[in-house]
Amino acid sequence: MTRRKLSDVLRQEVTKDAPEGSAQVQETPAKSSTAKSTTQKATASPAKEDQSAQLKELKAALAQGAEQEKALHAQIKTLEADVKLKQKKISTLESQLGQVDKLKADLAEAKEVILQLSEANTQMGKTLDELKQKPSQTKVPPKAPLSKTPLTLRPDTLPYHSVRHGPAPSKPKGVDVGWMD
User: Fold this and answer.
1) pLDDT of 155 over the 80 cut
2) Cα–Cα distance measured from residue 86 to residue 128, given in angstroms and rounded to the nearest whole number
């Protein structure tokens, strides 16, 4: 719907109704200016109705536009919150990715160490097998038999608390300590 000025709408209505209105005016030349104003009011009345209908439509469209604007603002806020949440998730995932990369490097290093140790273990096993297969060239002297003489305990080798050293301490005279266990 195109916007039209009120004066343009009135002019159109007047021009549409002009042949009819002029006929009325010619038929009743005795009527005064009140008749002209009545005729003009009668012809402007449909224009006012059209304008009031257009005004109602425009007000309804304006209200609908305001509601849409509110809905869009709410949607924008929701989307901004979603963006912030996703940015937090992205930063968390990036830090986790860094940790994963570090763990992968540690795992690769551990694999290398395990391979080196297994190679060393294999070489030691081969060396041990070779030593078992070769007769020993160096003879170990036989162990001397243990003597079967009993051990005697000397008081100087016993711990201090297991040996009584001298007489028991005597009580000082005149002091009654009381009953003791």
Assistant:
1) no
2) 61
User: How far is Cα 154 from Cα 159, in angstroms, rounded to an integer?
Assistant: 10
Mean pLDDT of the chain: 76
Residue 88 has pLDDT above 90, yes or no: yes
Sequence letter at residue 169: P
33-133 vs 6-27: helix crossing angle, rounded to 10: 160
- Contact by Cβ (8 Å): 13, 44: yes
In a domain, 138, yes or no: no
Domain enclosing residue 89, as ranges: 7-97
In the chain, the amino acid numbered 158 is L
Check pLDDT > 50 for residue 35: no
Q: What DSSP designation does 147 have?
A: P
How many domains is the chain built from?
A: 1
Which of 6-10, 17-21, 25-29 holds the top average pLDDT?
A: 6-10
Q: At residue 52, what is the residue type?
A: S
pTM above 0.70, yes or no: no
Is residue 82 in some structural domain? Answer: yes
Q: Is residue 18 part of a domain?
A: yes
Mind spelling out the 3-state secondary structure of 74-121? HHHHHHHHHHHHHHHHHHHHHHHHHHHHHHHHHHHHHHHHHHHHHHHH
Asked if the structure places residue 155 within a domain, the reply is: no
